[in-house]
Design goal:
The chain is mostly beta strands. It has no helices and six strands. It has strands spanning about 5-10, 15-25, 30-35, 45-55, 60-65, 85-90. It has a three-stranded antiparallel beta sheet, with no helix packed on it. A hairpin with a 2-residue loop joins strand 2 and strand 3. The protein is elongated and about 45 Å long.
Length: about 100
């Protein structure tokens, strides 16, 4: 089932500095997002034109962090921990709720 990707929303926490998202489609890699990141501003990025995604496509997400805490930072939900997620806005909706791990 084909869907159209119309926006991306990078989500990380306080130590994050950059996110890059690539789509691998039929052996071709396209950069969808390659932007600096700050925790205090979390914009979404419209994709224009829309990006078709189909079964077998893969997303590669890379996040960069700068640990200024002096302590080890682990993965977690707290803003004092870190994560590397990318929200994707797709059309048509699949009717699975607002949060769904994508499998194309």
């Amino acid at each position: 089932v084909s869907q159209q990707l119309f926006a991306l929303w990078p989500h990380m926490h306080q130590y994050a500095t950059h996110q890059k998202v690539e789509l691998v489609h039929g052996g071709t890699t396209s950069v969808l997002l390659d932007e600096p990141y700050t925790f205090v501003e979390q914009p979404y990025y419209r994709q224009d034109p829309l990006i078709p995604v189909v079964g077998g496509d893969r997303l590669k997400v890379a996040c960069t962090y700068t640990n200024t805490s002096g302590s080890t930072i682990s993965f977690g939900d707290s803003s004092n921990q870190e994560m590397c997620f990318t929200g994707m806005y797709l059309y048509p909706a699949r009717g699975t709720g607002i949060f769904d791990c994508a499998g194309f």
